[in-house]
Amino acid sequence: MANLSDRVPIPPRDAMNVGLSACREQTMLTKFGKPGQLTSDCSDPVGDFVKRVKRKFDCGPFKVSGLDFAVESLKQVLEEVKISQPSVFSSVKNDGMLCVRHRRHNPARFSNHSWGTAIDIFFGSTGPVPQGLHLTHRGNLLLAPFFNRHGWYWGAGFSGDSVDSMHFELADETILKIPDEPL
């Protein structure tokens, strides 16, 4: 039987994230403002954005901190997974959601984790698939359609060394539809 932590090839880019775009930093800055300082390590969010943050929000298999809309959406995704893929639900792990920092390959730009609108997900005890590898955990391959249906972009669709198969973020189109007032 296939293991959820098995590393498998990422599908062709035209087979995922249909109708969704990776979220642009400018969209985030316009919608929510500057989340904090550009650092290499996680720092605390600041400014008006903080009132939108939900901390230690129970999403089922784990708790997360992040933007109110994002954590509510994540909970819906995982509730659907629990019903139709219970083994995936019970095995999923996360490597963080809210982390104000710069992008790994671009220290001049904020990561979407900075607003708590992205989460890193993996399976198994060996940890995540490293960024830049064109492989993913089988479990992430199974999760991607659930995330896509809820307006999340899968980082496996990033190009070149930026491929990040553990990364899921609210798509640019989804961010633009988020109400301005906190939930």
List the helices and strands and how they pair.
Elements: E1 7-9, H1 25-32, E2 53-58, E3 63-67, H2 68-84, H3 86-91, E4 93-94, E5 102-103, E6 106-110, E7 118-122, E8 135-137, H4 138-149, E9 152-154, E10 167-170, H5 172-177
Antiparallel strand pairs: 1-8, 2-3, 4-7, 5-6, 7-10, 9-10
Features:
183 residues; alpha+beta; Muramoyl-pentapeptide Carboxypeptidase, domain 2; two-stranded antiparallel ribbon; 5 helices; globular
Characterise the protein shown here.
This protein is α+β, with helices and mostly antiparallel strands and 183 residues long. It has one domain: Muramoyl-pentapeptide Carboxypeptidase, domain 2 (2-Layer Sandwich), CATH 3.30.1380. It has five helices and ten strands; from the N terminus they run βαββααβββββαββα. The protein has a four-stranded antiparallel sheet with strand order 4-7-10-9. The protein is globular, with a radius of gyration of 15 Å. The mean pLDDT is 94.
